[in-house]
């Protein structure tokens, strides 16, 4: 969901005034004025491909809070006709005309500043009128152009769409473009009558255009007060599928006409999760309608605009014949996430982007609750919690990470916050709080917060106050504890702790200390500072209570924010294992003394391994593989833990292990000892592969949905390591598909195995195989299928084919949409052959790539991840550092991502220096 030079073409006034840089240069708007209401009229011209543009006028009702002679607001890339600007006082001692004497711009902050003829006086209300126009471009931000092909006529059909988060409403109309400036909006759209229009609110009136033949004006009802980034509208020729929502809002799901049959699942799931949130938050959905819209070109996965939620086609449309179970679950999570925003983000909005996580962390967390409620058979809540934790652990173990609540001092910095820290770590700390507060206190506090700040803006401290009150009233938190102190330790500092647990086996106690966990093992101990308030939950072999996640004790911080060693009286016997962090309820890592690890290893490698909760089995795997990477444990210990996977039959531990082992794979496959690692992986995978009946289509007989995902995951990795008949079976499926007379209608490859089959066949296949799959991409009408194909076309091992594919990815005239270009590059860069090509391509073509994405160059950060995970030699690291330095102007929009990538490369180099030989010797002993 989701700067560059301000262009204001001035008509009718002295140009010298518009070119001057004013003295006001703060990154936040002045507070002398506050908008109350916008009357926004926009005429959209979509008929002629040579004249795609919009012309508008905005009347802003503004209250003066202080005396001022300047009106400062945002405008970007808009042509403003200054000769037609109007300013009139509409309340106060006397209503009279004012005027604008001159204007100036501040391109750094996108400010358009009007200097008034007479002073605006505090307490008075004014109406400012600004006429504007701009071309509709395909930049995917602001008010932009999208299209699709009519399959019958083969002609391009144009449509317009908006994407204003975080700071792009200013590209569509002049406005006070900060989340704290909430106002109501009356939107009126003009367009040719062959189209339709939708916006945040229902239609109030449609009337003929006063001068343009066959054009109409569509006026929408006045909105509730909301931030500019949530305003949305579109002119299109789509159709919709209505949903039944008893006693609730009108609910519609929109798509292009030839994809409307793919709206059924979203139209069924959406209303159910909306009703769940009404009950969960204790507040009815506040608008009279809600629309979901699948946009062919969309930069974000989805966007929560109030009353008009927009999605990529792949995150809203579902085809039972073309989409896998994983696709369906991802789709449900995205819909649940966006609809949660209607309360968290839309009804109550952060004051400033510092607290973006209040939007994104909450929507991520409660989406998991919503999906679990609607689809209990998926049992997806634990998996989504683990995914959130693992994503945040990976990024937050870097020195170059950032706090959840992050100071933002430039608009350009806002987009950097849309990452795993705001979403996944934000979700993880909320889950922690939910578990230590308990259901009643958590929900009571949330409801009170939403009621207090409805239609207003809030900061995280406002949330902490409501939750503290609820926790104390319900006795969920001791009176001398408060949520503010506890949670600030998690949201205001970077990183997370590792808890070092040393047991006294005769006394039945354990001493616990904490320090920040970092993957960069060169950072000295003295610099691993930080203190977190940690709720301590734990159990032993004898007690075996993995259901009680409420803390039995707390790790506290001193008045100087230093960790205080904590003694717990766990009463576990000397031959019993001890496990902290029940169900991974808190985002920390637990490192035990050698004897406790030995007891855990013995338990995992015995028949009683399932007595340890499935999430804690995943935790042990994740923790020990991290510790082995950074030297806190040796690889002998780590591999004794992973050996138990030959018995494991649950998805969550396998996901934890495979995500960690994949990072080792990407380094080791460039070394002479990769053969040993490959044999070890085949040994681990063969029992589970055979248990799941391999590549055969046995999905219909699986009683649990988790088993479907387990098989999907295992078979995919099995083919990469050439386990059993995996590769030959995949090739056979692909050959059968190629032999079909009508392959676009008849596909014999099992839905849940298509990604694996396509990738394996392309990797082992010919140019004809690649071209066959490319043709299927060109002819596909299903977003999720198109994404699957694009991600597997990069599996080829032919250098020239991969080179050609990367060139297609960044060619504006190719069949690959801009939103999918990074997916294609990642697919190539993730392959053993493709990595070297992609690294070279990125370095040599960074200027071309920058130009392709400009001005939204943040997308380039998505290209870095597969590169950073595979650079592992000092010479390659130095070359990449040198490249980053030489190209810093082109890479300044992804400065943070580049720092994180270089740090990841450094940790890979460290691993090769310190662990490679030890790991290679150890793994040979386990074959």
UniProtKB/TrEMBL annotation:
Site (Transition state stabilizer): 423
Membrane-related topology note: Lipid-anchor; GPI-anchor; Single-pass membrane protein
Domain called Aminopeptidase N-like N-terminal: residue spans: 35-230
Places the protein is found: Cell membrane; Membrane
Cofactor: Zn(2+)
Family as reported in the entry's similarity comment: Belongs to the peptidase M1 family.
Protein name: Aminopeptidase
Classification lineage: Eukaryota, Metazoa, Ecdysozoa, Arthropoda, Hexapoda
